[in-house]
Amino acid sequence: MSVVDSWSRVMSLLEQHAPAEHAVLPGPATEQMLATAEERMRIPLPQDLRAWLLQNNLDLPEEDVDEDVQCCGYDGFPDEGSFYLGIRAMERLYANRYMPGGFDPPDRPDNPFWRNEWIPFLSDQDGWMGKFIDARDGRIGRWFVGDITITGEYESLAHYFDSVAEKLTKIADGDYPVCKIVEGRFLWL
Question: What is the pTM of this model?
């Protein structure tokens, strides 16, 4: 399944089971937005990431952005305390994590906390933890500041979104103990 198919499945499940959550999500990024971001970040976006952002650019509207937090997004999706990043939020977090030598810490190139080839797409508000796509091979990893970074958690962005669709199905079926849907919105317990 392609990333567009996997994301479409997530959006269909949201629309069907959590329509209030689905209704607030914005439209797509443009090719120009992506090209500008690539230029500022000095790294080409992986094809899967581009394809996803061309479906939904999940940046908050400018007037809703809180400058006091590292990352802003639609709270409560895909889970409590984290959210998908739109292109502006990706750029901001990437700039914060970027290291002149290419990885952090500089004396651990084979097992760093962060590499410049990792582009964040999901984060908490502080930028302390989240998920990234590896621009070298498209695999999905997870970071948590001060802990070991996990690379290759998912084979691709499509595989990751398939797991989100499975979680949404469990929530809709009442089989996910920490979340339920109330009046079309997620309620995290």
Answer: 0.90
